[in-house]
UniProtKB/TrEMBL annotation:
This is 5-methylcytosine-specific restriction endonuclease McrA. It comes from Roseospira goensis. Residues 86-139 form the HNH nuclease domain. Keywords: Endonuclease, Hydrolase, Nuclease. PANTHER family: OS07G0170200 PROTEIN, SLL1193 PROTEIN. It holds the Pfam family HNH_5. One of its GO terms (molecular function) is endonuclease activity. The keyword Glycoprotein does not apply. The keyword Nuclease applies. Coiled coil: none annotated.
Length: 194
């Protein structure tokens, strides 16, 4: 390679760096705040982050050897927005990926969201009127209210705070958790070293 860092030690594609805010808390639990190793190395060279922990892996150029960061912290504290964005994913996260009618948990691709008060009845697309539903329950409920369909909600929908979404996100650890992240993440499950 011409002057750039080479992949001499066969760096795996799965060597992301955990990104912590300046207070050493993850920016996000779900999705977990991770960046690819290339972005982490770039941020280090641009002096935007502190390296907290490193992998055993090294990348080299003709004049430089760098251990890959496994945990980085921002030098400047990033404030989160007061209210989370109203997105389909955040609705699923608020409802713990669980249909609010039948109470069963589903993978994201099998979920939809449902208007408690149907839009044709004047229902709006807001935190207080949208819930997570599986396709079968959504179809069964149809263009009715939960009461008219005899399908009571598991919990009434309401706007979550960022703190609540982060707490819920901690219940869903990702498949890949590196050992060096243990001190910065607070899941109850045992960490898989690789």
């Amino acid at each position: 390679m011409s002057g750039g860092l080479s992949d001499v030690d066969a760096v795996p594609h799965n060597a992301p760096a955990l990104v912590l805010n300046a207070d050493y808390r993850p920016l996000s639990y779900f999705p977990l705040s991770l960046v690819p190793w290339q972005e982490a190395v770039k941020a280090v060279f641009l002096d935007r982050v502190n390296v907290v922990c490193e992998y055993d892996r090294v990348i080299r150029s003709p004049s430089l050897e760098v251990r890959l960061p496994s945990v980085i912290s921002l030098k400047q504290f990033v404030h989160t927005a007061r209210t989370p964005a109203f997105t389909r994913f955040n609705v699923f996260l608020r409802d713990r990926f669980t249909c609010q009618y039948c109470g069963r948990r589903f993978p994201t691709h099998e979920l939809t969201f449902d208007h408690v008060v149907p839009r044709s009845w004047g229902g709006r697309t807001t935190w207080s009127n949208v819930v997570t539903a599986c396709s079968a329950c959504n179809l069964r409920k149809g263009n009715r209210t939960p009461r008219a369909a005899s399908m009571p909600l598991r919990q009434p929908p309401k706007p979550p705070s960022h703190h609540i979404l982060q707490e819920i996100g901690r219940a869903f650890p990702p498949n890949y958790l590196h050992e060096s992240w243990r001190d910065y993440l607070y899941w109850d499950s045992e960490l898989d070293p690789w």
